[in-house]
Recover the amino acids of this structure.
């Protein structure tokens, strides 16, 4: 659509139409941001009362926190591993969802389930499946003679974190594979056919012809997925509460624990400011990759 | 002829192969939910079997009804519905005029406004939890439905604005111009012509906001301290902490909570991707 459809107008005329949205955005998204920044520089008592300014004390306390280094490392692993595997699996998955076969609808609907279901429910079910006594996974593994004795996968920090990663990938796949499916569907049919009969073989044709066309969808999907994954709280919280100890925490659950368990609001706010800045980087990345301005002008 | 037959059989084999693969993958995705179902219909005595059985000895389908007596499930669902429906209404009130206006008008602050909307999509309340908590306590909205409704509506604006503005854009401007020539005011044109034509978009955003509020966890977990104010997601996570967890009822309740959301989700599937990527894919 061309710009002809626009009537040039002053920004004041827009106010009655945009007002309600602006009230919500300024009042309840931006105000908490400001409040968060201020809290990170304030001295806050255990009961939540403000006792004056703290300068950089909260940030210093955070850097001195002995669990910070491990948490940062895990957050990086959490982000990289989940996004990598999610995208790597989504590519063939989207291809499968786009293929014509009996049961294709069933596949597409099944993939929607983890997307539609509350993360709390999926995490609760996973925790139950992994339970050392009552969980079905141990029974399956014993019946398949893979293990002899039941193991408590969520009891050991290493295996617990791997389990969390697997659930994280499972719930990430629906969004990314649907994004790639949308990308595939926007490729003209004759180009898809050409990639097949090129004689170069499916594999070569895919990487030479189809993947370059999918790249915008792939990158946008990956960045948005990274934001989801970074913000993800319920999976870890429900399955391990970041435990044992702090050994499966990411910065998101760690910030929650510092604020609402250790009652150190100031220190937690300084960590949240860090999280905020990381998301800001992702937003910049999104704007660059999505060529957002051009899209907006269309 | 012979060659043709060969092709056909080959195609049929690859078709079967694809079907087997597709259905296997589908079942992998369904595994957590199927195993939830198999637990939900187990009688109480089966739940604590060690090792657990794959299938219930008796299929107790009435667990789906008993859950309302065994757990405060009715109360949770009532809160969840109240929060979700109100969030949906508030979200529509804010996003319909905004979506319409940005679709039809060019003004200097248009791009900054859209950027601001995008920010609400990228920042989840999880990061801003301390700020939200402080704000809500100064407004006396901690442990209230209203607080949860406002926060949910605010953070889910982006999807609605993207989808609605693309729907409004797709309505030919000539129709609106004709109405204007007939003497209709700006608002009349909007209400009588554009709004009904954009109904599919409105339904889509209504459903999306409803689901987002239905599944929301971290804000409600932090703000709603009394059980009567908690949505199902929070109630469920707190029930697991109890000494004796009634897993069969817990999962029966969870499945009841998933089904309406799944059906609604399937209805808006076509528009999900474009709304969630700010229209940058498709």
């Amino acid at each position: 659509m061309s710009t002809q459809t626009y009537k040039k107008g002053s920004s004041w005329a827009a106010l009655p139409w945009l007002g309600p949205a602006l009230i919500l955005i300024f009042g309840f998204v931006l105000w908490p941001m400001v409040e968060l920044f201020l809290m990170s520089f304030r001295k806050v008592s255990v009961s939540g009362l403000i006792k004056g300014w703290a300068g950089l004390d909260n940030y210093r306390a955070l850097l001195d926190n002995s669990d910070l280094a491990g948490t940062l490392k895990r957050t990086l692993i959490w982000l990289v591993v989940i996004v990598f595997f999610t995208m790597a699996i989504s590519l063939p998955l989207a291809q499968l969802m786009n293929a014509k076969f009996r049961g294709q609808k069933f596949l597409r609907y099944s993939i929607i389930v983890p997307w539609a279901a509350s993360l709390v429910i999926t995490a609760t079910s996973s925790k139950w499946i992994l339970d050392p006594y009552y969980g079905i996974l141990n029974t399956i593994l014993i019946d398949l003679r893979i293990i002899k004795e039941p193991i408590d996968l969520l009891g050991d920090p290493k295996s617990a974190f791997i389990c969390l990663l697997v659930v994280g990938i499972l719930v990430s796949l629906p969004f990314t594979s649907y994004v790639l499916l949308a990308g595939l569907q926007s490729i003209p049919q004759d180009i898809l056919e050409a990639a097949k009969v090129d004689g170069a073989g499916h594999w070569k044709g895919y990487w030479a012809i189809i993947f370059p066309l999918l790249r915008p969808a792939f990158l946008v999907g990956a960045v948005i997925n990274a934001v989801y994954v970074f913000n993800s709280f319920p999976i870890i919280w429900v399955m391990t509460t970041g435990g044992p100890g702090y050994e499966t925490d990411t910065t998101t659950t760690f910030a929650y624990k510092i604020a609402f368990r250790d009652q150190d609001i100031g220190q937690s706010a300084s960590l949240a400011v860090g999280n905020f800045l990381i998301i800001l980087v992702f937003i910049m990345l999104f704007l660059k990759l999505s060529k957002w301005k051009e899209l907006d002008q269309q | 002829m012979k060659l043709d037959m060969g092709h056909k059989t080959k195609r049929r084999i690859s078709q079967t192969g694809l079907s087997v693969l597709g259905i296997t993958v589908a079942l992998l995705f369904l595994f957590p939910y199927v195993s939830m179902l198999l637990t939900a219909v187990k009688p109480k005595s089966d739940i604590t079997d060690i090792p657990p059985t794959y299938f219930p000895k008796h299929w107790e389908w009435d667990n789906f009804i008993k859950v309302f007596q065994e757990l405060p499930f009715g109360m949770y669902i009532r809160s969840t519905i109240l929060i979700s429906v109100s969030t949906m209404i508030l979200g529509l009130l804010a996003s319909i005029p905004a979506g319409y206006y940005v679709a039809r008008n060019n003004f200097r602050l248009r791009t900054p406004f859209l950027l601001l909307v995008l920010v609400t999509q990228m920042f989840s309340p999880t990061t801003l939890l301390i700020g939200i908590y402080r704000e809500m306590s100064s407004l006396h909205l901690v442990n209230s439905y209203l607080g949860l409704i406002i926060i949910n509506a605010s953070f889910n604006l982006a999807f609605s604005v993207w989808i609605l503005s693309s729907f409004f854009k797709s309505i030919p401007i000539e129709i609106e111009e004709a109405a204007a020539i007939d003497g209709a005011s700006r608002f009349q044109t909007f209400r009588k012509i554009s709004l009904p034509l954009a109904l599919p978009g409105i339904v889509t955003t209504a459903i999306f906001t409803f689901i987002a509020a239905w599944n929301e966890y971290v804000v409600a977990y932090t703000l709603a301290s009394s059980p009567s104010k908690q949505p199902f997601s929070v109630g469920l996570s707190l029930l697991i902490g109890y000494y004796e967890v009634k897993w069969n009822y817990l999962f029966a309740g969870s499945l009841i909570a998933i089904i309406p959301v799944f059906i609604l989700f399937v209805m808006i599937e076509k528009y999900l991707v474009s709304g969630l990527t700010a229209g940058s894919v498709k």
